[in-house]
Each structure stands twice: as C-alpha cells, then as structure tokens.
C-alpha cells in the first residue's frame, strides 16, 4: 500500500509541474488501426490521421494505434508523420472498419550526398549556421504574437497487472487497482485514469518590454484528490508550456534542459547528419543529436532544419531514464513549426503550432505501479507583430469568471480534432474511479496533505492547517489547536477564518480570527482585519519565519526560550498594481507581555523601567516580482515565480506614539532580494540578500533578530548553525547562497552515477551592529528586582558559515554538512552540524 500512496503522490506532483488532457463526442463512423514503419515494423507514434478534404482527424498514440470516430466520411484516409511519406488508403461507407497503415521513409532523398568538411560531421556546420540565424526564427524576437490555444492532459496509473517473480500474480495493490474502472490500451493492458482535463485559452506575448498574458476561457477537469479545477486550468495552460528550442534552455518539470540549438550546443551534444528529406513541403536536413554523456540532463532526438533558410521545421526530443532526473522512464517532446505571415512581403516567421508531450514515469520499486501523463497543445489563429498596449498584459494570468464548462456539445465544437473512444470515455471513467470509496478516501488524504485543510462538506468550512493541530513545549505543555476557514462554497468575496488553541500546562486559551474581503479581481485587491492572542518566542516569531509553515510548526515544540504573549490587531489592504508590483498597506497594534525577566528604561520622570509595552505602526510593503504568475486557488492566491528575474521586497514601518496607546515612535527600513539563475553547464545558483536599518531607540525585541535554526533539518531562509535569538541588530546585511552542481561531478563517476546524486555548495554571511543608545536602553534589573536578560550584538567580524551537501539521496533526501567559521566561542553553539531535509524532488 505504501507503494501505491507514493505512486499517487508522484502522479499529482508531476501533473502540477506539467499539464493535463482529453474528452467527449458521439459520432457515426469508426475507423481504427495501427500505423507502422515499413522497415522496422515498429509503431509510428503521434502520426497524423485525417480524412482527405475534411476536417475530421486524430493522431496515433505512442504505440502507433489510432481510432477516429466521426460523422464525416470521404474517399480516402491520409496518414502522415515527420520523416515519412504521406500515404492514402481507400475508405468505405461501412460504419466500422480497420485500416492498418505502413509508412515509408520520405521519398525526396538525395541520390547521394558527399560532403567534405574539416570540422568533422557536416551537421555541426549546419547547426552552427542555424544558431547564427536564429534571430530570424526565434519567436522571442518578434515584436509580438498571439494565438488561441487548446490543451488537453490525461494521467493514468498503469503497469499494475504485471506478473511478479516466480510467476506470481499481481500484488495486493495490483489486485486493488484491477477492480477499478479502467481504459485498456491496444496491448490489452488496463490503465486507471486519475486525472483528465482540457482547456481553451488566449495567449499573448510581446517584447520591448517583455510581456506575456494568458486568459483561460474555458476548462474542465476531474481527478483523484483534485478539488479545484481552476488551479489545474491555470497550471496547464500555455503560460507554463512555452517550449522554444531557440532558447538556451528548455524548462521542463522544473528542470533546465540545454537546447540543442542553444549556446551550449557544442559543449553538451554530438550531432550527425542522417539524410535530406521532405517535411511539410520543404526539403530539410535530418540531424540526430544526443548528449556527449548519456547521464547528463539533456535531450536525444532528431531535428529537421530546412535547407533554404536554415530554420527549425520539426523536432523530436527525448529524455530517458539514464538522465539525472527522478521518477521518469521517458520524456518525449515533439513540435511542429509552421510559417506564419507577418504582413511583410516576402517574409515569414515560424512558430510552434503543435506540441505533444509524453511523460512515462519509472516505477519506484519492481512491483509498484507506474504512471503515464500525456499532454497535447495546438495553436490556431496565430497573429504576429500586433502588440497590445502594455496595460493589456496585466494580470499575466487571468481566469475568466465563467471558465468552468462541462457541456460535451461545447467541447465538440471547440476542440481542434476528434478524440479516440478511450479518450472520449476519460471523464466518465475517472469520475467512476474517484467515487470508489477507497479512492475517495485516498483523494481526501492526498488533498489534506498538499493543501493542509480538510473540507467539512455542505457547511462550506475547511478544518486545519494539519501541521498546527498539535505541539508540545515547556511553556504550554500539550498544545491543541483547532482552526476553521470558509471556502468558495460560502463566498468568493468574503473569507472568514479563526482558531482556538489551549495548553495543558499554562491552562491558557489562545485564539485568532480574520475577516477578508476581495474588493475586486482586476486588478486583484483584498482588504481584511485580523486579531490574535497567542504565545510567541523571540527570534522565531511569525514575523521572522515568514511563509515557512513547516518550520513554523516545528518551532512550537521543545524549549521556548524568551517566550512572550502577544495580542495583535491588524487592518490591511493589498493590491496587485501590475508590472509585477504588489502593494500592501497595513495598520497594526500589538502588545509585548514577556514570560521571562525583561525590562527597558523609560524616559518619563515617574517611571524608570517597564516590562510591558504596546506599539502602533503603519507598514508599507512593496513587492516587485517581474515575470511571476499569480495562481488563484479557491479563495487563496499564490505566486509561481517561473522566470530568472530577481524578486525584491521593500518594507517601511512607522511606529506611532500615543496613537491607540502606542509607546514608541520609530522607523524601520528593510530590503529583501531573492534570485535564481542558471550558470550554464555548471548548474543553478540561488541567493537571498537581506538588509535593514532602524535609526530609532527602542527595546531590543523590536530590533532585527536574524533567523537561526536549532533543529536537525536544514531551513532555506535561516542561518543553520546560528541559535535562536543569538544576535540582535539595528543595522544589518545578510547573504544566503546555494549552488547546485546537479550531476556535473557525480555523473562522471561510474560507481555512483546510477544513484543520480547531486552536489551542492552553500554559504551564509551576516553582518550587523547595535547603536550605543539601544545598548544602554536595557537596565540591570526590572521593577521586581530580577536580573534582566540582555542580548548579544556583533563585533566588526561577520557571522560566516559554509557547507556542502548531497541532494537526491534515494530520490528524496538531502544531507548538508555545515561549518561555522566565526563566533565559535559563543555559549551553547555548534561549530559543525549535519542537517537533513526531504521532499519529492525530480
């Protein structure tokens, strides 16, 4: 059973990183058969099948099998594929007929080709000239282009009925899956659909400035553990499926695969000129390519380059299980590029008008089921060099209000080609699968694990988050927490939430509540109020931790050093202003009630020290994330940062004295920059810079406390060998960096390259200081005569830690060895540590 759960989770993970597919129609004529190569007898995948002179058509599957169901008929059926002659077979008026097609290699071959070149295989000279001319064909070089997009995705669990060792039948998981509704492939093997969808959208792109926009017009989706089809529609549209082989890298499954037409073409690949053939009415060079090291994360395949203009016409690119990528047996990406007039006489540009992607997953263990994901995308009504106004491209991703369309009649008239009977049954079958009691429970578990909330049915409430339900620490004892929030069934404008928490040791009730209202969706603007009363700890408060929910939950366990109670009221408004800018303005009033000996000096003559204080502050936060896409999930929105552009966040906080009983006037400035970029064959670098300045005299809990990490696992945005609340600063700068060499080193070592390990180097530097006024604000004792716990500031030397690690251990784990180079004599610190982290990683 654990294999089954792992497989299902893997399928969903793949789907969210890739895309989804097919659907339904009723017709009168059925034509089926298999398309094979005349020489090898092997099936021809993704071949085009069409009735001559009609619009009805389909494509073959990965085994060459096809089925066409249509109300149209004609005198012949045409079969065509890349590198083959188009061939016609006669049709009859029989309601059901079988036509097996045999395709010959393309007829327009050169009688004899002899090319003599000093540079070895002439393919290198052709590719070199193709890359030199890519500005003429690269879609990114156009002023603008736009098209209507149709995409379909389907995901299946397969290979569960195979015989095991010693002739034994399928295991318990296989027997369970065998009882579920399935679609059978042409080899008679069952495949259980777990997700199907199709989407129609409009895609726009322009340059100078670089802008993209996609508007999801219609979509429908169904799957195990999928509760919101709108998320799938956004993640599987054209915005995430731009496979442009003229770019240096192809982004696929969150991996950067070097393009055979990119700058690293000669470093990564070897090329061979195979032949000269006719493709789509043009005579093309047929060139095979493959990585110099088969374990490198790169493509193998064939490209067809036209002989006259040296532009890409067709490409068939594959990645097999030898490459350094997890859970994948094979990836196959095929594209057809067509010329599109741009209004200039005698000049035409090319765009990929058909993209087909097949992802066949590798079974985690020999007896575990596998998964298959298919993706198809077609572009039509292409227009070029007609840019829209820059404001038109905001927001970059937009979901139409009435996007959900389930009517089969609509999809019959809007999809570009007919689908096979199995594809037409996909929605019906997957609905049957998801309603099986076991699969229904499994889907709820998967959804709870990924989302963190459990829907409570018709009351339109979700319970969670799961991670925060329980904790144990020295102050609260056993902490029990129950949280609720409304979902879209309650309202798509109003969002209500709250929680109650109770500690068995302190016997104190904590709570939180919030009310949010979506003011408008174009541009997206939301306002809300929030009130909480809960325990926090210096150096690991919710403000320090940010969005790291797993680490935040873990910090409530164990010993809470310097804990305090905080009552907080916040009012805010947040709006997406366009061009990647999000602006937030908030007003917050909060208290500090220490549960440890604390005091600060008060300047008023009637009181020398105080332990309690209240602050009132206005906060202005500006976030600039060019190229990021906002995804709407029910009433939540989250960001997908799919570009190499840096993300910058600037924050200014103004403390207001005597406003809502605020005790201080202060100013806080902070800047955060996050960036990830590719360094060619050397791998990918990620870094984060934090800087800030507080030119005010205030108690040290209001100064900046860098995030430490006393846990055994590594945290990305923390200084992993720094203790909680080890340093305090009112002026600071910090840098966190990581470089992943991927398979650069280990792929060249025969003994371990099959393990697919990846080597990493990490480093972190923090430099800060505290003004003398803030140092002297802390008295020796408080009003009760207790010794006040102070803080440590830094000298002129920065805090430095460096590390190295191995990622992808058993495809899940990462282990880092980290050395602390400075402040090694501080009390209770570790100068060396091993940190572990784990996640599903491709």
UniProtKB/TrEMBL annotation:
Q: Which UniProt keywords apply?
A: Carboxypeptidase, Hydrolase, Protease
The keyword Protease is annotated on this UniProt entry: yes
Transmembrane segments annotated in the record for this chain: none
Q: Which residues form a coiled coil?
A: none
Organism equals: Larkinella arboricola
Keyword Ribosomal protein attached: no
Q: Which is a Pfam family this sequence falls into? A: DUF5686
- GO terms assigned for molecular function: carboxypeptidase activity
- Name the chain's protein: Carboxypeptidase-like protein
């Amino acid at each position: 059973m654990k294999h089954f759960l792992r497989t299902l989770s893997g399928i969903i993970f793949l789907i969210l990183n890739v895309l989804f597919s097919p659907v339904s129609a009723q017709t009168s004529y059925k034509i089926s058969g298999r398309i094979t190569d005349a020489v090898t007898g092997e099936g021809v995948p993704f071949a085009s099948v069409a009735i001559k002179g009609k619009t009805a058509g389909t494509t073959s599957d990965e085994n060459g099998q096809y089925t066409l169901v249509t109300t149209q008929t004609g005198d012949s059926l045409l079969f065509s594929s890349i590198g083959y002659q188009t061939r016609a077979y006669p049709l009859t008026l029989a309601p059901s007929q079988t036509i097996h097609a045999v395709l010959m290699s393309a007829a327009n071959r050169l009688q004899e080709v002899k090319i003599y070149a000093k540079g070895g295989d002439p393919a290198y000279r052709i590719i070199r000239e193709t890359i030199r001319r890519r500005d003429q064909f690269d879609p990114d070089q156009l002023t603008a282009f736009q098209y209507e997009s149709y995409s379909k995705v389907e995901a299946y669990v397969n290979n569960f009925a195979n015989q095991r060792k010693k002739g034994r039948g399928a295991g318990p998981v296989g027997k369970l899956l065998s009882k579920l509704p399935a679609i059978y492939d042409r080899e008679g093997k069952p495949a259980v659909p777990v997700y199907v969808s199709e989407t129609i959208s409009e895609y726009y792109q322009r340059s100078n400035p670089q802008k993209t926009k996609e508007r999801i017009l219609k979509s429908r989706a169904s799957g195990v553990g999928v509760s919101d089809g709108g998320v799938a529609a956004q993640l599987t549209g054209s915005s995430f499926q731009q496979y442009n082989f003229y770019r240096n890298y192809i982004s696929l499954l969150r991996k950067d695969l070097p393009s055979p037409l990119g700058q690293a073409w000669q470093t990564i690949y070897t090329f061979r000129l195979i032949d000269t053939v006719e493709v789509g009415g043009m005579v093309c060079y047929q060139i095979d390519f493959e990585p110099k090291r088969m374990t490198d994360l790169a493509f193998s395949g064939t490209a067809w380059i036209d002989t006259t203009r040296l532009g890409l016409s067709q490409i068939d690119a594959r990645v097999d299980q030898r490459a350094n990528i997890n859970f994948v047996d094979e990836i196959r990406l095929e594209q057809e590029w067509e010329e599109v007039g741009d209004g200039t006489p005698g000049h035409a540009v090319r765009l990929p008008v058909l993209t087909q992607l097949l992802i066949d997953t590798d079974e985690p263990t020999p007896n575990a089921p596998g998964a298959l994901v298919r993706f198809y995308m077609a572009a039509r009504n292409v227009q070029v060099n007609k840019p829209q106004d820059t404001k038109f491209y905001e927001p970059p991703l937009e979901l139409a209000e009435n996007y959900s369309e389930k009517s089969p009649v609509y999809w019959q008239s809007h999809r570009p080609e007919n689908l096979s009977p199995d594809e037409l049954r996909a929605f019906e079958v997957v609905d049957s699968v998801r309603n099986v009691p076991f699969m229904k429970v499994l889907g709820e578990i998967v959804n709870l694990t990924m989302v963190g909330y459990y829907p409570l049915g018709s009351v339109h409430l979700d319970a969670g988050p799961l991670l925060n339900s329980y904790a144990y620490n020295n102050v609260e004892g056993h902490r029990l927490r129950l949280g609720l929030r409304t979902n879209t069934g309650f309202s798509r404008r109003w969002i209500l939430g709250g929680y109650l928490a109770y500690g068995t040791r302190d016997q104190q009730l904590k709570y939180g509540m919030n009310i949010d209202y979506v003011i408008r969706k174009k541009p997206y603007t939301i306002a809300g109020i929030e009130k909480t009363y809960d325990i926090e700890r210096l150096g690991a408060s919710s403000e320090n931790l940010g969005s790291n929910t797993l680490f935040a939950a873990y910090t409530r366990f164990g010993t809470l050093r310097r804990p305090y109670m905080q009552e907080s009221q916040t009012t805010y408004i947040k709006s997406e202003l366009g061009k990647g800018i999000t602006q937030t303005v908030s007003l917050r009033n909060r208290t500090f009630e220490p549960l440890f000996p604390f005091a600060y000096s008060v300047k008023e003559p009637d009181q020398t020290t105080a332990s309690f204080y209240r602050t009132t502050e206005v906060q202005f936060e500006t976030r600039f994330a060019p190229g990021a896409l906002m995804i709407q999930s029910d009433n939540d929105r989250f960001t997908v940062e799919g570009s190499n552009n840096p993300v910058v966040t600037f924050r200014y906080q103004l403390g207001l004295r005597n406003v809502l009983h605020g005790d201080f006037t202060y100013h806080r400035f902070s800047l955060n920059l996050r960036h990830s970029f590719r360094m060619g064959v050397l791998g990918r670098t990620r870094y984060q810079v934090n800087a800030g300045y507080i030119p005010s005299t205030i108690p040290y809990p209001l100064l900046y406390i860098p995030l430490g990490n006393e846990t055994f696992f590594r945290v990305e945005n923390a200084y992993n060998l720094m203790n909680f609340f080890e340093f305090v600063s009112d002026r600071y700068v910090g840098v966190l960096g990581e470089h992943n060499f991927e398979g650069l080193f280990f792929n060249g070592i025969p003994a371990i390259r099959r393990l697919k390990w990846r080597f990493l180097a990490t480093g972190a530097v923090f430099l800060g200081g505290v003004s003398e006024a803030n140092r002297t604000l802390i008295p020796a004792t408080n009003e009760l005569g207790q010794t006040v716990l102070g803080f440590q500031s830094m000298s002129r030397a920065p805090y430095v830690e460096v590390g190295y690690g191995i990622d992808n251990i058993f495809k899940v784990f990462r282990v880092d060895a980290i050395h602390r180079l400075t402040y090694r004599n501080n009390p209770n610190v570790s100068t060396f540590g091993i940190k572990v982290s784990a996640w599903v990683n491709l």
